[in-house]
């Protein structure tokens, strides 16, 4: 008895310690380090020669008894496992989460109580549609899945970088995935929604309208995984120790702000560096630029379940931040790259059903269906339900149950008892009371008739799509129209294009429908429809007005816009190229480079060839990248130092001129000093900018995100202006005439 009491105390949730290193220490038991070791077989036998198979004579047949050959070949033959049916391409990182203050009033989840505690996490970012080898920068939703290894077991927040979903009921998920994936007859196109079947489906499914707007916006081409928001999408439930529940929406807010690529750049990157986002994440962590995200929550008291003009169980709706503000409750820092892609990033298995006490589900029919799908698909990937024993998936707390056996079982369960109740095993493993950390489901009252029907409160499909459109900046609107010109422009069926314009887009906005029609060979709609909408109670009102009953309304939501609300003014980890050749000004290069690096930017010297180039002052610098291996698309900003000889050479290099044209076209900041300005004027943007007038010379001049300095050594002022231009990220809107610039 006394022995068991001791054991109980040791096993108590209160005394279970988890810290930042708990997961790493656990993984250490499984790591293999080949350093200074002999090559062996799987059986541990040392190998004397691995370059030749065992043969009967050096030109004779290979012998069956060559165990080393057989084993080596067998492993290769079985190295692949089925890729995820969606979210196949992903990138993972380890880190930790820390809550800012106790959330005990809302939830009893232990990892959300103590600000001094660091809970280990593993995050996997992904694209959705493409296969494992597809490009990172395609237009797509990004998955943002987080596994918290808490002292009460694993909690998975399996979200996306878009706060709503295409469909309302999980039973439509197979149709959605079939429509958006490559067509079944010809397996085309790869990693793209721009084909007939997807837009056919979308045009017939008005509930996709809101999510479509997000997917067509800049959100679907993030500049970096570190610069995008994450969302839990569904309304979940928090439950405190008193058993009181409240509704919650989860958000991840990146501390670097939200930033995107432009479409032309995204497409080119898909060819020049298909690993763009993966590389960016990896390199940031390797160089200590740890990605940081704050966890935010929108709280909805249980009594307000029906207070909105939409249904909070409908995953195609968000709750405008202007109605319910996001409270930032903690921070996640990603600080360690995986050791092995397959063992960790590929084998990690997330599941929205992995919850801990204090976090519970709601009746959102999309969420309910997800609760079935994830384990089901993981059994397809791993051919066994024992995938939970794979190191990356193990909780950092002990697992005791009677679910033994099955393919590849690792755990050796002791004793003859594998059932419950039992007396022969002392009644163990035993049940935990709520106080002992036992999971108790929220006692929500549910009643209803069995019925295959959609709730009436899910009926309004367009109001929030309109709110999104109305909340965009002018530039963002323009890019949504261009995205539709691309996506629908690839649709061969005119019938589908017409239906998209009339049945979907015109219900979102007449302005949008008209602008899109023009680019895709379809007549503009003759009348505006859908500017009014019926709410759940049958009242007719203006669309895109979101109200808490009796409360304030939202007709414009800047929180939805990247341009208007979500940028940061830091240049930390921004990539800047310095274009130079022999005969550059070293003093200019050094001054600008040092100023940028002090602010956390990454600076690379780009020239025609690798090797060294010599400055006018005689210093030699190592070239970081040659033109053939890089391009403007791999940088956030460009700088051209003076130095007559260098600039004269660059003027004759199509590659250098192309970098400037393209960076200009993509809205990127460009800096130039003294003769460097001549290179700008020699490029196609010479027609678009005027550069400093005579009296403005000697101090930096900023025009359309181009920062120049002439006849002056005042680099400090130049650097300040250039850094400010980079902090604004893009200068697209002020470069309207860029259509003239080839790139
Ligand atoms: Fe899902 C993977 C996110 C709806 C079925 N989903 C998957 C991943 C993410 C999401 C991030 C990749 C996890 C990883 O990195 O391994 N899924 C979402 C979000 C949704 C959503 C935010 C809407 C709110 N998903 C959804 C529905 C279903 C699924 C409605 C089916 C009923 N999702 C799956 C899946 C996947 C998956 C088929 C494929 C690979 C996997 O689960 O492990 O089960």
Automatic annotation (TrEMBL):
InterPro entries: Catalase, Catalase_clade2, Catalase_clade2_helical, Catalase_core, Catalase_haem_BS, Catalase_immune_responsive, Catalase_large_C, Catalase_sf
Domain Catalase core: 40-428
SUPFAM superfamilies for the chain: Class I glutamine amidotransferase-like (SSF52317), Heme-dependent catalase-like (SSF56634)
Cofactor requirement: heme
Swiss-Prot/TrEMBL catalytic activity: 2 H2O2 = O2 + 2 H2O
Region (Disordered): 1-61
Major enzyme class: oxidoreductase
Keyword Cell inner membrane recorded: no
Protein name as annotated: Catalase
Cited CDD domains: catalase_clade_2, GATase1_catalase
Annotated source species: Rhodocytophaga aerolata
Keywords: Heme, Hydrogen peroxide, Iron, Metal-binding, Oxidoreductase, Peroxidase
GO molecular function: catalase activity
Family the entry assigns: Belongs to the catalase family. HPII subfamily.
Summary of the function given for this chain in its UniProt record: Decomposes hydrogen peroxide into water and oxygen; serves to protect cells from the toxic effects of hydrogen peroxide.
Superkingdom to which the source organism belongs: Bacteria
EC number: 1.11.1.6
Pfam families, alphabetized: Catalase, Catalase-rel, DJ-1_PfpI
Biased composition (Basic and acidic residues): 1-22
Signal peptide feature range: none
């Amino acid at each position: 008895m006394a022995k068991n009491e001791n054991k109980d105390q040791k096993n108590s949730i209160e005394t279970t310690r988890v810290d930042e290193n708990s997961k790493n220490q656990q993984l250490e038991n499984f790591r293999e380090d080949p350093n200074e070791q002999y090559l062996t077989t799987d059986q541990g036998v040392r190998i004397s020669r691995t370059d030749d198979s065992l043969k009967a004579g050096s030109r004779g047949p290979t012998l069956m008894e060559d165990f080393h050959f057989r084993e080596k070949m067998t492993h290769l033959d079985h190295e692949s496992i089925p890729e995820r049916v969606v979210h196949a391409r992903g990138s993972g990182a380890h880190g930790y989460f820390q809550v800012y203050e106790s959330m005990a009033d809302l939830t009893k989840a232990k990892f959300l109580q103590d600000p001094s505690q660091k809970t280990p996490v593993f995050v996997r970012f992904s694209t959705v549609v493409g296969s494992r080898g597809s490009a990172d920068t395609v237009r797509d939703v990004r998955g943002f899945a987080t596994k918290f290894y808490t002292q009460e077991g694993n909690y998975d927040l399996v979200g996306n970088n878009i706060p709503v979903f295409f469909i309302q009921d999980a039973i439509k998920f197979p149709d959605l995935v079939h429509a958006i994936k490559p067509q079944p007859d010809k397996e085309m196109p790869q990693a793209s929604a721009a084909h007939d079947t997807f837009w056919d489906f979308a045009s017939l499914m008005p509930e996709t309208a809101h999510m479509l707007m997000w997917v067509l916006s800049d959100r679907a081409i993030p500049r970096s995984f570190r610069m995008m928001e994450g969302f839990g999408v569904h309304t979940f439930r928090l439950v405190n120790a008193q058993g009181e529940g409240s509704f919650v929406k989860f958000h991840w807010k990146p501390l670097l702000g939200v930033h995107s690529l432009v479409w032309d750049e995204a497409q080119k990157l898909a060819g020049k560096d298909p690993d763009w986002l993966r590389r960016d994440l990896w390199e940031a962590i390797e160089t200590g630029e740890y990605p940081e995200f704050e966890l935010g929550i929108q709280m909805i008291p249980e009594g307000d379940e029906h207070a909105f003009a939409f249904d909070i169980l409908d995953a195609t709706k968000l709750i405008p931040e202007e109605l319910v503000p996001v409270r930032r409750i903690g921070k996640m820092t990603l600080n360690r790259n995986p050791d092995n892609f397959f063992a960790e990033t590929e084998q990690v298995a997330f599941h929205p059903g992995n919850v801990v006490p204090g976090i519970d589900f709601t009746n959102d029919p999309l969420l309910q269906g997800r609760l079935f799908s994830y384990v089901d698909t993981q059994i397809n990937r791993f051919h066994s339900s024992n995938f939970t024993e794979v190191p990356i998936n193990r909780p950092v707390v002990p697992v005791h149950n009677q679910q033994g056996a099955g393919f590849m079982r690792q755990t050796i369960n002791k004793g003859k008892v594998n059932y419950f109740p039992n007396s022969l095993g002392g009644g163990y493993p035993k049940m935990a009371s709520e106080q002992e950390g036992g999971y108790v489901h929220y006692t929500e009252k549910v009643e209803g008739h069995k019925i295959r029907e959609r709730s009436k409160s899910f009926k309004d499909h367009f109001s929030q799509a309109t709110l999104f459109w109305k909340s965009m900046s002018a530039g963002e609107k323009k890019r949504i129209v261009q995205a539709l010109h691309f996506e629908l422009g690839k649709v061969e069926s005119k019938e589908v294009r017409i239906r998209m314009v009339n049945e979907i887009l015109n219900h979102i906005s007449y302005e949008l429908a008209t602008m899109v029609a023009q680019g895709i060979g379809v007549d503009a709609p003759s009348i505006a429809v859908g500017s009014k909408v019926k709410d759940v109670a049958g009242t007719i009102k203006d669309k895109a007005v979101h109200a808490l009953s009796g409360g304030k309304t939202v007709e414009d939501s800047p929180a939805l816009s990247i341009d208007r609300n979500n940028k940061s003014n830091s240049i930390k980890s921004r990539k800047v190229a310095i274009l130079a050749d022999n005969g550059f000004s070293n003093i200019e290069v050094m001054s600008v480079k040092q100023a940028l690096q002090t602010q956390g930017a990454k600076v690379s010297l780009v020239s025609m060839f690798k090797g060294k180039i010599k400055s006018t002052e005689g210093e030699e610098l190592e070239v970081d990248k040659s033109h053939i291996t890089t391009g403007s698309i791999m940088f956030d900003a460009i700088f051209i130092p003076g130095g007559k000889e260098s600039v004269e050479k660059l003027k004759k290099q199509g590659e250098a001129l192309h970098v400037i044209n393209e960076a200009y076209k993509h809205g990127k900041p460009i800096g130039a000093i003294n003769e460097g300005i001549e290179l700008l004027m020699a490029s196609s943007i010479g027609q678009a900018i005027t550069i400093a007038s005579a009296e403005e010379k000697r101090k930096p001049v900023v025009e359309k995100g181009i920062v120049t300095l002439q006849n002056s050594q005042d680099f400090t002022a130049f650097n300040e202006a250039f850094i400010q231009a980079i902090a604004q990220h893009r200068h697209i809107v002020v470069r309207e005439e860029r259509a003239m610039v080839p790139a």
